[in-house]
Amino acid sequence: MAGITVELREVKLANKPPELAEASPKATVPVLVLPDGTVLEESIAIMRWALTQNDPEAWLSGDNTAIIEQADGPFKHHLDRYKYPNRYEHEADRGTVDHQAEGLSILREWDSVIAKAGQLSGAARSLTDIALFPFIRQFANHNRAWFDAADLPNLHPWLAGHLASDLFNQIMPKFVPWKAGDEPVMFGAVTDRVD
Q1: Is 90 exceeded by the pLDDT of residue 87?
Q2: What is the residue range of 125's domain?
């Protein structure tokens, strides 16, 4: 959206190239290395940086920090444990937490926000919508039949709209995992900014 072209290095996390850890000790994706050597290691930081360069749809005007922090904190906590319960066996000592139900509770809050204007920060898509819908997509796809039956009358069409958008479809091609010596893969501006 910002019209910035980058060299894309697709990473398969089960087989991380050593160059990933050299760029960022956390060795998870995404990582953006800027020409001056600055390293951005979080999706939201990368999004905000790109939009400060060029923001043709004024997405930064819809940067709802509270909702984004809720998504990156409590919602992601429940999402990870809902999707990968075997990775978090140590939580058994704390009692049973229904992470599906806790995630749904947060989604209901967001459903109420969407009911007011159609998106999470107003009538038009913004940074908040673009930052959250991939997390919600993951939650939905873990048990799609259950999710589709959940009482989320505003969030369901909101998510479907983002998933059907030309923007989403243009950024989701499959890439071969990168390895040293590969020809650069340039990834850049979307061709149509209107959905």
Answers
A1: no
A2: 59-164
Q: Give CA–CA dist 161/41, Å, rounded.
A: 28
Give one DSSP letter per residue of 21-87, joined into a string.
Answer: HHH-TT--S--EE-TTS-EE-SHHHHHHHHHHH--TT-GGGG--HHHHHHIIIIIHHHHHHHH-GGG
pTM of the predicted model as reported, rounded to 2 decimal places: 0.88
Question: 39 - beta bridge partners?
Answer: 33
Residues 76 and 153 in one domain: yes
Residue 34 lies in a domain: yes
Question: DSSP assignment, residue 191?
Answer: S
Cβ neighbours around 113 below 10 Å, total: 17
24 found inside a domain = yes
pLDDT value, residue 108? 98
Count of domains in the chain? 2
**CA gap 157, 123 in Å, rounded:** 14
